[in-house]
Recover the amino acids of this structure.
């Protein structure tokens, strides 16, 4: 079965773009980022799907990327767009001045969940 085998959970078949522009804090690039719902539950990466996968492999797999213009979103497969409610430091460095994780409101979190369980993530940032 090829990529079109009806398995929408594969990251190459769907993309979620999180708009982190215009927030109180500047969003920074990082090798590992996390996305949370307003209750603090981790939405991405799906903890079950990456439980046994090294972070190096996840990063090399191009599951997360960054763009700085709307035009760069054109042509991405099965695109779902959401706006971040806020950004925050990594859970690994909660006192850091660098904001690398995104928090979504309940509506955006529901849209994020409905996109698929293993979509590629793209941050639309300044």
């Amino acid at each position: 079965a090829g990529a079109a085998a009806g398995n929408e959970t594969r990251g190459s078949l769907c993309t979620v773009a999180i708009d982190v522009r215009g927030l109180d804090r500047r969003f920074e690039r990082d090798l590992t980022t996390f996305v949370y719902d307003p209750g603090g539950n981790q939405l991405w990466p799906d903890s079950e799907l990456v439980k046994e996968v090294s972070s190096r492999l996840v990063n090399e797999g191009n599951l997360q990327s960054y763009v700085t213009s709307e035009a760069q979103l054109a042509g991405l497969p099965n695109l779902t767009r959401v706006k971040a409610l806020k950004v925050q430091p990594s859970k690994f460095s909660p006192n850091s001045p660098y904001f690398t994780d995104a928090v979504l409101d309940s509506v955006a979190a529901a849209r994020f969940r409905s996109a698929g369980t293993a979509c590629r993530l793209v941050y639309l940032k300044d």
Summary: Helices lie at 55-60, 106-115. Residues 36 and 103 are 5 Å apart (CA to CA).
